[in-house]
Specification:
Largest sheet: none
Mean pLDDT: 86
Distance between the termini: 39 Å
Radius of gyration: 21 Å
Structural class: mainly alpha
Number of helices: 4
């Protein structure tokens, strides 16, 4: 791993840790999903925006599996709250909004990481063309296909 990759990963990890720390501040066990009214909760939701901006600024392609798992867990909780007819409509709407916001941020994050991967692959090409040994596009192993013999 190059030193630059380490620094990039460290910056991402700092942002992820800040989101997890904000998540830990939220008391999800409050009756009637009262956390949906808390400032700490919304700081957690909008913390994902900073992660999206990071991927847009930096050519990082790695996404922490723990962040995807956190998104999955939160999505389940928010969906339950959004469909809980015993809650006031305002709170159901807030749960639906939180689910929408997080889904939007995670989708943007994944798409940007994919774009970053494509850009990194393009950067590996020489200015005069493909720098692979065969002169063929990377991944083209048709000369090595023994089934054609």
């Amino acid at each position: 791993m190059q030193n630059d990759d380490f620094i990039v990963g460290k910056k991402r990890r700092q942002l992820e840790d800040a989101i997890v720390a904000q998540f830990d501040k939220v008391d999800f066990k409050q009756k009637k999903h009262a956390y949906l009214e808390d400032e700490d909760f919304w700081d957690f939701v909008f913390g994902w925006y900073e992660l999206v901006k990071y991927y847009e600024r930096v050519q990082d392609t790695a996404i922490g599996a723990h962040m995807l798992d956190l998104y999955r867990q939160c999505g389940q909780v928010f969906r339950v709250a959004a469909q809980d007819m015993s809650l006031p409509e305002r709170r159901r709407d807030k749960a639906a909004d939180a689910l929408y916001q997080m889904t939007y941020y995670v989708d943007r994050m994944i798409r940007q990481a994919q774009r970053n991967g494509v850009e990194k692959a393009a950067d590996k090409r020489d200015a005069i063309g493909d720098t692979s040994w065969t002169g063929k596009p990377l991944g083209d192993n048709s000369d090595n296909d023994l089934s054609k013999n």
